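Re: the pair you flagged

First of the two:
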Amino acid sequence: MPVLADLRRLATCLAALLTFGTAAPAQTSDLVSDTAFRVCADPANLPMSNEAGEGYENALAELFAAKLDRPVQYTWYPMATGFVRNTLLAGQCDVIVGYAQGEELVLNTNHYMTSAYTLVVPADGPLAEVTTLSDPALQGLEIGIVAGSPPATHMARNGLIGKARAYNLVVDRRVESPVLDMLDDLETGEIDAAIVWGPLAGPLVKSDHPDLAVIPLLEETLPPRLFFRITMGVRQGEKVWQRELNSLIRRNQEEIDALLRDAGVPLVNDMGDAPKDSG
């Protein structure tokens, strides 16, 4: 999701797949609760989720639960290796609110959000007009990057990787917060810019770093892609539940978009090459 998310979600999915093996066999919808909206979530993963219910994925869970006329019920587990296996596949919960499209470990719903990696810079500095990693203004600068994430390839292609400062990818957010550290380092001038998954960067900058600007990287046309479609994840085989969630997404997309925009998430169109129309 990606986090998808942060692309931390994409790495989590891969790590879980390597640990657990192939996706679980097809299961029936009998495992899905009809008395609660049972959500698998990270207890310390702001701006997405936390135990206090302060993340935008918490808000999405409340929205969907209200549409289903059920209370939200959480199973908490850190978004690291074993997350899917110990929550969704163990039958402890029925949905992961944010999951990158195309991963085999879960059955994806239709996507409810498309977002992109962003360049984060001081809002009043000389980089505020940069929109692509090929811009000469970035040459020779120390740029923060989450190690192993797709933008690292683009940085290498543009000669930016030599002075890059790497931050850890898959972590337990209860004890380590690489993106928070990266934005703090940018605020204090220890690095010159940061490249961060938009659904992390936008809300964190909005809430804690008003002097920074978040610029979606929409002009990087060579692979790997820097935009991802985010879905909800359910157990393989639970097609009835998937269709029910798909219907909710389709019928409530405007409300979903408004919630995400209010949180600060930069939304882009499905091709990842322009901001999503707000009207």
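Second of the two:
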Amino acid sequence: MVFQMPTPGPTTRHRPRVLPLASAISAGVVLAALVVLAAPTWGQLFLFLVFGSVMALMVGGNCWLAHRMRQPLSVMSPEQVSLDPCRQLVAGRKPLLLAAVAGLPGVLAGAAAATHADLWRETVHEAPWGTRDPKFHLDSSFYLTTVPWYRFLVDFGFAAIFASLAAAGAVHYLYGGLQLQDRRRRSTAAARAQLSVLFAALLALKAAAYWLDRFDIVGRAAQLGPRQLDAWLQAKTLLCCVALICAGLFLTVPVRRRWLPAFTGLGLLVLSALLAGGVYPLLVGELG
């Protein structure tokens, strides 16, 4: 009777999970060193770090949240079957991909913010000029420094939320939270909740942009007649209110489980921008 020793089975080599994280940390350290060497002022370095970190945290946090809220794929539609190789490719590289998806917008946002260091210093150390506009009775320095800085903050918010929306939408689509071909189940509850909040934030920033347009209009009041100036201010105020209403409609999507009312309101906002924000002031100017 011969006993045969069992032969060891094929061993699977596990890739160490530390390598992607170490690579991301090393890239971040090298990037920070390059920024310190290239940035001529501490203000630019401060803005780079603050706005770059905010952008990276927003994009990376929304990606992580979308991945955390994903639901198991119970029924594999042909659309989801075609995405299965992509999910397998992502499965072993999640930390590295998350660092790349969050880091690249962060670097771009930080570099853009660093170019506004002079404007930031002028806003912080703003000194009154002693002259005020006849409409809002605000100092002239407010229009030259504070309004452009607020405009930059709104533009940065637009970029951050749009990037977060695109990243979260891609993750939800990859894991079945969004489906384009299945009419019975277009989106899951988690995808609707996260994406509707991001859409609402985007429209709230659009309302802030319309509100800032009022100060830009007053800043060039000398080029407009009194009636046309009032018409432009009324139009921007109306568009600000419509944008806030549309933001509220998107916040009702998780409760009502329907996207149609929110996107209908978005269409009305576009129509209002064409009529109230363009045609109406021009007609008033022609009639005046």
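Residues 1-19 have pLDDT under 50 and may be disordered.

-B.
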